[in-house]
Design goal:
Rossmann fold; 10 strands; alpha/beta; seven-stranded parallel beta sheet; 241 residues; 17% strand; three-stranded antiparallel beta sheet; 30% helix
Length: 241
């Protein structure tokens, strides 16, 4: 695992965007695994700027998102499809037919997960997977558990995850309690993994991810075993290491 220290959130975002842009420049038809949440937003803004400057072409890029809330439609402003359109897809020349997000409106969890695994397999493999880090060590919505998840799965969100996300909703009661998420094994199948982390509030869990034992109680600790995992974290997030 390679750790890159960034000065602050803006520096972390620039460094992450530069690595993603390099992946696209080297392989224009890259398959990108994309993440939502507040941490990647700065990187997406940097990628949009590069595209608007004429330095980055998304026309052949395919994307596969990590997760989606179960029960939310793509046009719901809290869905992750809406998030990706708002922060990236609407501002670059990517073909939205080549962008994939789990189907939150599919009530049959087994069917939704099976179909998303088929999409991942048909893509030929993810070239670069972008990840954020939850306060409890989750990646995607893979929460602490007794074992690592494998394929796409339907998860019951923990109280800490609901608490972290309730600020985006009118009330805590509006936060979905389940989500479809790419499994840990699927994430580990990416050729390169990029984990972005910012803020002192993430320092305790990042220390466990980098320095602690590999355990499903800290799902992101599994990244220690990936042959090409990169952590870009700002000084605050690295303050306990």
């Amino acid at each position: 695992m390679q750790v890159i220290r960034a000065k602050d959130y803006a520096d972390m975002s620039r460094k992450a965007a530069n690595l993603i842009a390099a992946q696209i420049l080297v392989k224009p038809n890259s398959v990108l695994g994309l993440a939502t949440g507040s941490t990647p937003i700065g990187a997406y803004e940097e990628l949009v700027r590069k595209h608007e400057a004429g330095d980055l072409d998304f026309s052949k890029v395919k994307s596969i998102n990590l997760d989606e809330y179960k029960g939310l439609s793509p046009d719901n402003d809290q869905s992750y499809r809406y998030f990706m359109n708002d922060h990236l897809f609407n501002h670059v020349n990517i073909d939205k037919a080549n962008t994939n997000v789990p189907n939150g409106l599919e009530p049959d969890a087994e069917k939704a997960c099976r179909e998303y695994d088929e999409i991942i397999a048909a893509s030929g493999g993810i070239d670069l997977q972008l990840l954020g880090l939850g306060h409890n060590g989750h990646i995607g919505f893979n929460e602490p558990a007794d074992e690592f998840s494998k394929g796409t799965n339907c998860v019951n969100l923990t109280k800490s995850t609901i608490d972290a996300n309730k600020r985006f909703f009118a009330s805590e009661a509006d936060v979905p309690t389940q989500a479809y998420t790419m499994g840990c094994a699927s994430i580990m199948g990416a050729k390169k993994i990029l984990l972005v982390v910012s803020g002192k509030d993430k320092a305790p869990i990042l220390k466990k991810v980098i320095c602690g034992p590999v355990t499903p109680q800290v799902p992101a600790s599994l990244l220690q075993l990936h042959p090409d995992a990169i952590v870009i974290a700002d000084e605050d997030a690295l303050s306990e290491i």
